[in-house]
Each structure stands twice: as structure tokens, then as C-alpha cells.
Specification:
Layout lengths: L2 H25 L13 H48 L5 H29 L4 H15 L6 H26 L7 H16 L10 H25 L11 H6 L5
Protein name: Membrane protein
Keywords: Membrane, Transmembrane, Transmembrane helix
InterPro entries: DUF4239
């Protein structure tokens, strides 16, 4: 049984139970009952639906913002690890040091100029980026240290390359959208219900009431747009940037 079918059955069952109880309760009410003596439940239900939807919107915004922060942090960790490799390679011979730094520069340049746009368009990293980082790993791991100083620097360099590879994997995982389709279904449906409940109240065409209704609808639309904009950590306006690479490797810009 699919999740959508389970959701539909659960929503239909909840609605049926509530409506059944209301119908049975109304049949038990006598003809002398005065509805004006009981409080109007419509405004209370409207308020509760608005509160519940506000909580859902807050959780959605917090989720996509956290995803965007995690994406930016993975970029920072990757750039920092590669910077450490480039810096600590100073103890190696000139030819080895130059080869390591050149391969790192080639990888960073590819990430900044090519792979970043590929992530935006296709929500995935490139195979060439994998190959360039694998070349850096080979430069570091296949070199046999010849002095004590080189031996002391060897394992930290290997660890930093592994850290860069792990950060790259995290960046690849963060390229996809954060919110699943079923959450978007709930957000859009909730927005339509919440805005539609305005028409159940005794709203008139006075400037003040029309202004408040318009501002309420604009606020809901803005919050949904904000969630959509943050939903793709690398793809929209408020997105993670390659600034950590550019700051650590100015030549890549």
C-alpha cells in the first residue's frame, strides 16, 4: 500500500468520524434549542487551523534553512581540507609539492567554474570532479616519505584528503531538494485552506478588511516562496556559494 493511499484513507476516515458525530449530535438536539446561547465555533476553528498551519510553516522553514546551512558547511570543510593538504605539502620535495598543488588547483577550478553550475542544473556532481580528486589522493598516498619530517606529515595529509572526499560526498547529497513532494502537498493544501477560511468570516469590503486580507494572502505566498527558494541548497537565490573555495584558493576565481 502506497503512502499516498494511506494518507487518503486516514484523512477520509478522520473526516467521516467527525461528520458522523456532528450529525448524530444534531439529531439529539430538541426543537427548543437556542444556538445563540452557545459560542460560535467557526472563529475558534479558523484560529486553530491558522495556528497549526503557522507551526507547519515554521518547521518547514527551519528544515530547509538547516539543509542550506549543512550544504554550505560541507563546502567549507572541503575547501579547508584541501587548503591543509596544499599547505602541509611544503615539507615534500619541490616536484612532489608542485604536482600536489597543481592537481588541487585544477580540482578547485573545476568545482568553481564547471561543477557548481552542473550541480545547479542537474542536482549532482561531475565524474571529472571525482577523477580530479582521485588524482590528488594518488599524489598524496603513493608518495613514499624519505625523511622523518616527511613521514610525520604523510598521515595528516592522507587524513585531510579523506576529509575532503567525505565533504564532497556530503555536498553531493545536499544537491537535491530538501522537502519531499508529500510535504509540498501539505503546504500548498494548507495554504489554500487557510486563505479560503477568510471567506467563511463576515468580511466586508471596507478598506481595512480588504487590506488585512490582502496582506495575509501575500504573507502566505511569501513564506511558501521562501521555502521553495531554500529548498534547493545550491540551486536558487538564497543558495550555498563556492566562496570558501575562492577564499582559500584565490587563483581559482
Amino acid at each position: 500500500m502506497s503512502e499516498w493511499l494511506v494518507l487518503t484513507i486516514a484523512m477520509a476516515a478522520a473526516c467521516a468520524v467527525v461528520l458522523t458525530i456532528v450529525v448524530i449530535n444534531n439529531r439529539r438536539i430538541g426543537e427548543d434549542d437556542d444556538p445563540s446561547e452557545t459560542p460560535d465555533v467557526l472563529e475558534y476553528m479558523t484560529m486553530m487551523i491558522g495556528v497549526i498551519y503557522a507551526i507547519v510553516l515554521g518547521l518547514a522553514i527551519a528544515g530547509v534553512w538547516e539543509g542550506r546551512g549543512a550544504a554550505q558547511e560541507s563546502v567549507r570543510l572541503e575547501a579547508q581540507a584541501l587548503h591543509e593538504v596544499s599547505t602541509r605539502a611544503e615539507v615534500y620535495p619541490a616536484d612532489v609539492r608542485t604536482r600536489i598543488r597543481n592537481d588541487i588547483d585544477a580540482y578547485v577550478s573545476h568545482v568553481v567554474h564547471t561543477e557548481w553550475q552542473h550541480m545547479v542544473d542537474h542536482s549532482e556532481v561531475t565524474e571529472k570532479g571525482d577523477d580530479l580528486l582521485a588524482r590528488v589522493r594518488q599524489d598524496v598516498t603513493l608518495y613514499a616519505p624519505k625523511t622523518d619530517l616527511e613521514g610525520q606529515a604523510y598521515q595528516p595529509l592522507v587524513d585531510q584528503v579523506a576529509a575532503a572526499d567525505d565533504a564532497r560526498d556530503q555536498r553531493a547529497q545536499n544537491t537535491e531538494a530538501t522537502m519531499p513532494p508529500i510535504v509540498w502537498f501539505g503546504l500548498i493544501t494548507g495554504a489554500l485552506i487557510t486563505v479560503g477560511l477568510i471567506f467563511t468570516l463576515q468580511i466586508r469590503r471596507t478598506p481595512r478588511e480588504l487590506l488585512l486580507a490582502g496582506l495575509f494572502s501575500v504573507m502566505i505566498a511569501f513564506l511558501l516562496f521562501l521555502i521553495w527558494d531554500l529548498d534547493a541548497p545550491f540551486g536558487h537565490g538564497i543558495a550555498a556559494t563556492p566562496d570558501p573555495f575562492v577564499n582559500r584558493f584565490p587563483g581559482a576565481e
